[in-house]
Fold this sequence. Notes:
Layout: H1 2-13, E1 36-38, E2 45-46, E3 51-59, E4 63-69, E5 72-78, E6 96-102, E7 108-112, E8 118-124, E9 130-136, E10 142-147, E11 153-155, E12 157-158, E13 162-163, E14 168-171, E15 174-178, E16 184-188, E17 193-195, E18 204-210, E19 213-218, E20 225-228, E21 234-236, E22 242-247, E23 253-260, E24 263-270, E25 277-282, E26 284-290, E27 296-302, E28 312-317, E29 322-328, E30 334-337, E31 343-349, E32 354-363
Antiparallel strand pairs: 1-2, 1-29, 3-32, 4-5, 5-6, 6-7, 8-9, 9-10, 10-11, 12-13, 14-15, 15-16, 16-17, 18-19, 19-20, 20-21, 22-23, 23-24, 24-25, 26-27, 27-28, 28-29, 30-31, 31-32
Amino acid sequence: MRRIQIICALILLITTGCSAENKNNEVTAQEPESSITSTDNAGNETSDPGVSIVRTDNYENLEISDWLDSDTVIVSKENESLGKMTLEELADSYPRSLYLYDLKTKEYKLLKEQEELNLGGAKLSPDKKNLLYHGYSLGDQSYHVLNMESLEGFDISGEPIGSAGSAKWADKDTIIGAGYVNGAYYATADGHIASFEELDPKAVFIIEKIKDTVYYNTADDMTLMALNQSDKETVNLGLTNISGVYPSPAGDQMLVLQYNGSKQILLLCDMDGKNVKTIAEGIELGGISWSPDQRMIAYSVMGEESSTGAGILYIYDMLTDESVQAAADAGAVVTCWSPSGEELVYSQWDGKQYHSSIVYLEYSLKK
Length: 367
């Protein structure tokens, strides 16, 4: 029932296609022009960017999803030691497993493998002690946690939630997500799973926990709400048709993705929903992430002017209030930043394989 509600809600909001994981083109990174365009004054350019692109390294048949340190990334790739998948629809591919990959030595270290299951989307906890990832073959994704030291873990499923519809790190010890049917849940890094009683039995669509406040909306009402866990008070933030929430690293600002007719708008605002500012808009937005120091925002745009359907990856500089093009033909991508904020990964699916690129940055202006 929850899946039906969510699909109906999105159909009402979207008059053009949403980003999908499995409909992207192969990445071809291009060096951006030296000028950058202000998000507040479209068409006005400056020749003095705060950030520039040094180079882009491409990695074929590889999904890079997070950074362990400046030289080591978390990746997902086909594991030929397991043999090919037996499902007819996947019979020409090997299961994808999780590895550590050393960018300098080009060496892989196996973290987790499982027959007949593709593993991916892995994200480290803030203290880097645990790894949250999903598994999929056909149908819905499953969610799992892996201890980085013991390489043992648990599935986010079973009583009292059944199965998870989403999962993300709320802090170093806690995962939060929407239930597959109704409500929400939290799971601790040691395997304890419990229902989020304040939101039961709402059909939760988005859920984010930032300090003592839980931000959420439902499939029935896409308005963003804020639940204070201390006094249990719920506040309507006045932000409607919201399909994504991206809190800043410091937890004092957030990005929200909003549908407005046939377009999407990326908004920046305070945690109470005030001081709203438009960062970008287009037919389709994605690849949204903050740099660790909260200076940079990555996002991709697909607009009406793109006859090929390809998108452009941008980096917005909070210091200069400007955006610089990081890659062309980027499509709908997933991004993540290195610990230093001097490298940005973007990954996408071409219909058969993942491909990733690392964009190396140089800053001419310092905070």
